[in-house]
Write a structure and sequence with these properties.
The chain has 174 residues and is an alpha+beta fold. The chain has four helices and five strands; from the N terminus they run ααββαβαββ. 25% of the residues are buried.
């Protein structure tokens, strides 16, 4: 019995070491091809006019309709981002948070390198995040045809010490 306890104790310390080495992310679940990480702010700013963005690393991909024989009536997409905010925007999100984010949102794996290993994030409920980011007032593209794009938060975590926000969102373009 002592041998099993010793073995399990050794495994436990190995797992503790892995956890201490960096943040734990939920599993990435979106089907995807290799995506290019983007850094321009225009597309981020227009989707989230309620916050001030300093820098961003993000990816976006169109969601398949699931049926190859029918055209999709609208263009659905998912967006994953690691965004640096101005401190007043961070504080508004932190004020709406409801606990430690563990695990962190399951963002696209290539974005994880932009999340500092020692940062502690808190979660913000979707409805509050949508309200603070002001996604209802998404700035529409001027060259867009009829209809309006919509965007909403699926998961959001924020860190007050680094002013970082981890975001998983989705939207529809008509």
């Amino acid at each position: 019995m002592a041998g099993i306890d010793g073995l399990l104790g050794g495994c436990s310390s190995v797992f503790e070491g892995l956890r201490a080495s960096g943040p734990h992310f939920a599993k990435f679940t979106e089907p995807s091809k290799k995506l290019t990480v983007k850094t321009d702010l225009k597309n981020i700013d227009r989707r989230m006019p309620g916050v001030q963005v300093s820098a961003a690393h993000w990816v976006v991909q169109r969601k398949g309709s699931g049926r190859l024989d029918l055209p999709a009536p609208e263009d659905r997409y998912w967006l994953h981002a690691v965004i640096e905010l101005k401190s007043d925007s961070t504080q508004r999100l932190v004020g709406a948070s409801n606990g430690t984010a563990d695990p962190l949102p399951g963002i696209y794996p290539d974005l994880r390198q932009y999340v500092p290993k020692k940062d502690v994030f808190t979660t913000v409920p979707k409805a509050k995040a949508d309200e603070i980011l002001d996604v209802e007032h998404l700035v529409q593209d001027s060259d867009e045809g009829s209809g309006s794009e919509t965007f909403g938060v699926d998961e959001l975590a924020v860190c007050s010490s680094s002013n970082l926000m981890i975001l998983i969102g989705s939207g529809v373009k008509p």
